[in-house]
Amino acid sequence: MDQRRRFGKLILYVFLCLVSFSAQGNSRLKRESKSKELLPLFWGTNIENLQTSQPLPQGNLQLRVFHRFGAISDGASEMFGIYSPSNITLGLGYGITSNLSVILDAEKEKRIYDLSLKYRILTQKLDNSMPFSLTYILTTSYGGMSDENYGVSYKPANRWSYLNQLILEKQLGNNANIMAGGYYTHHNASNPKQPHDVGALSLAMGYRLYKKLGVFTTYQHNFTLGAISGEDKRIKIGNDRLSAGVSYGTPTHKLQLFVSNQYGISTGDNMVNNVYDISSDNLRIGFNISVRLHHKK
Predict the structure, then answer these.
(1) Does pLDDT of 17 surpass 50?
(2) 146 burial via Cβ count (<10 Å: 0-12, 13-18, 19+)
(3) What is the average pLDDT across 50-77?
(4) How far is CA 35 from CA 9, 122, 126, 252, 286, in A?
(5) Among 7, 37, 84, 257, which is 20 to 30 Å from 45 by CA?
């Protein structure tokens, strides 16, 4: 009887130990799951001209500096475009919640002011219960150039345009990202041969070489939607865009250096007005810098 009691106590002790270890393991996995938020490996909130699926964390303030030089084909006398006329965008972003950000960008070349609301609808999970991230972005743009740039019959409403973006992004393992986007822009004013409405599809791929360093490439194809203004129905919209570059970053700082055939920075305007096709004559160096000025602990 004593042996049975001792054996029973031993079985009960082992069972309680297993339950305790299992509870501790589950608690540890939950803590790790919370602490290891799945983020794009090195892209941050933007990749070249494109928004990614990643919003800013709640309470975070971001400074954005995007710069595009002249064409590399300008030659050595212009330091391969570095001394040529350049375009720059300055911006600020703020994380309202963990899934909602607001961004204000100001572009020098066409005096374009972009106000964006960025909302992450779905977030990829570590356990793959949600296999991808999905984000919607609404951008309202105001053009600050002189009146004659906005049509013959100028109205203040001609300065406004709108861009809808839907971004699907997936992290593949520990070293790769892939992102696809769909875009629709409406411009209240359009030039002859141009549509008021233009759509686009984009694809971006990135691969991490080291912990903080990665390479990427992006492509965007534009297509017309809706009616064409003017009697001449030949369609004239923005040229497609191709870029390739490297990205280096920490959770608070991102630097991207790349070559692209795009001089403009505002996505909605480029969909309609990018005049540079994909060729060696139109390639130019660009860089993006983003810094979180304030991060909520």
Answers:
(1) no
(2) exposed
(3) 95
(4) 39, 18, 11, 17, 34
(5) 84
| CATH number (domain holding residue 124) | 2.40.160.40
Q: How far is CA 174 from the centre of its chain?
A: 19
The model's confidence at residue 150, banded by pLDDT at 50, 70 and 90, is confident
CA atoms within 13 A on the CB side of 78: 16
Q: For residues 118 and 101, what is the distance between their CA atoms, to the nearest angstrom?
A: 5
Q: Is 180 within 8 Å of 205 (Cβ atoms)?
A: no
Domain count, the chain: 1
pLDDT tops 90 at residue 228: no
Residue with tokens 């990135």: 206
Residue 7 in any domain: the answer is: no
Any domain includes 126 = yes
Cβ neighbourhood burial of 116 (10 Å; 0-12, 13-18, 19+): buried
- Distances 182 to 134, 159, 221, 223, 243 between C-alpha atoms, Å: 11, 24, 10, 11, 18
C-beta of residue 185 within 8 angstroms of C-beta of residue 237 = no
- Whether 28 maps to a domain, the answer reads no
pLDDT-derived band of residue 151, with 50, 70 and 90 as boundaries?
low
The residue range of the domain holding 288 is 37-294
Instruction: List the end-to-end C-alpha distance of the chain, in Å, as a whole number.
Output: 60
Return the sign of the alpha-carbon dihedral for residues 246, 212, 88, 151.
Answer: positive
Q: Looking at residue 174, what DSSP letter applies? A: T
Residue 85 maps to a domain? yes
Distance CA 119, CA 101 (A): 7
CA distance 104 to 131: 30
Under the banding of pLDDT at 50, 70 and 90, the label for residue 174 is confident
Token duo for residue 10: 């031993």
Model confidence at 32: pLDDT above 50: no
Confidence of residue 38 (pLDDT cuts 50, 70, 90): low
Token pair belonging to 142: 């105001």
